[in-house]
Write a structure and sequence with these properties.
This protein is mostly beta strands. Strands 3, 4, 5, 6 and 7 form a five-stranded antiparallel beta sheet that branches. It has a four-stranded antiparallel beta sheet with strand order 8-9-10-11, with no helix packed on it. A four-stranded antiparallel beta sheet has the order 12-13-14-15, with no helix packed on it. A hairpin with a 5-residue loop joins strand 3 and strand 4. The termini are far apart.
């Protein structure tokens, strides 16, 4: 039987599930999540880690058939995918108020480093739909769609050869800046690339680079205030490096390596 103990108070038991289960914690340790099977069905429950009190997600004691269950990095939200109902929902914590919900194919979900936004990426046939949702109120800060006609742009070159490589695990080369203030969308049709940088505070596209010949790769600076865009028209050509501001997309410097 799985149980939860409070070590700060001397090891007292705060939760006894009376069943075998796997228990994990939210990033800051505020909440505990228990997952267990019953036949062919998977269940989960969310609890306050300090006292074991149940958080009723969706008005229920337990979550059924969740393909993805993830806390925001600041422990203030929980994203839940329900494969049976084909719903994906964002809940505020600790109130368990539903802030956002969508129906359809299960998405790929990613939080910004500061937890202020969550990206929800879905594939509908050949179309990739992207929505960046504010976790404070569930409103959409930015959304776009593009055709998934080729492997996407990636964010780093090969460590050994320096060559630009395409990674199908990167859904369109999408990513938040380290400070959570910007969002970058990179797409490719195999011969040309497009890069868009979005200011999440306003939802404006501060930079749109289209018809980039060949391959492209990008990376944010650790502070998130700048990013590099590396383009290579041909495998035999020299890569061009641009350093741009995430605030307005302006060019800060460029070189050819």
């Amino acid at each position: 039987s799985a149980a939860l103990y409070d070590l700060a108070s001397g090891g007292g038991k705060v939760l006894d599930l009376n069943r075998p289960a796997t228990i994990g914690f939210s990033p800051k340790g505020t909440y505990a999540v228990a997952v267990w099977p019953e036949g062919n069905t998977a269940y989960a429950s969310v609890h306050h880690a300090a006292n074991g009190q149940l958080v009723r997600i969706g008005g229920s004691d337990r979550i059924q058939d969740s393909q993805y269950l993830g806390f925001g990095p600041d422990d203030t939200t929980l994203f839940v995918e329900n494969t049976t109902a084909r719903t994906s929902s964002l809940y505020a914590l600790p109130s368990a108020t539903r802030l956002y919900q969508r129906f359809g194919n299960p998405p790929s979900v990613g939080y910004s480093p500061d937890g202020s936004h969550v990206s929800v990426i879905t594939l509908d046939g050949s179309q990739v739909h992207v929505a960046v949702v504010r976790t404070a109120d569930g409103t959409i800060a930015y959304q776009t769609s593009f055709t998934a006609s080729a492997p996407p742009i990636i964010s780093e070159p090969d460590e050994k050869t320096g060559e630009l490589k395409l990674d199908p695990q990167e859904a369109g080369g999408l990513g938040f800046s380290p400070d959570g203030g910007s969002y970058l969308v990179g797409t490719s049709d195999g011969s040309t690339a497009r890069v868009t940088v979005v200011d999440l505070a306003s939802g404006d596209e501060v930079l749109v680079r289209t018809n980039i010949s060949g391959r492209a790769t990008w990376a944010f600076s650790p502070c998130g205030h700048m990013f590099t865009l590396v383009t290579q028209a041909l495998p035999t050509s020299r890569p061009r490096v641009e350093v741009r501001s995430t605030a307005d997309g302006s060019l800060l410097g460029e070189t050819t390596t």
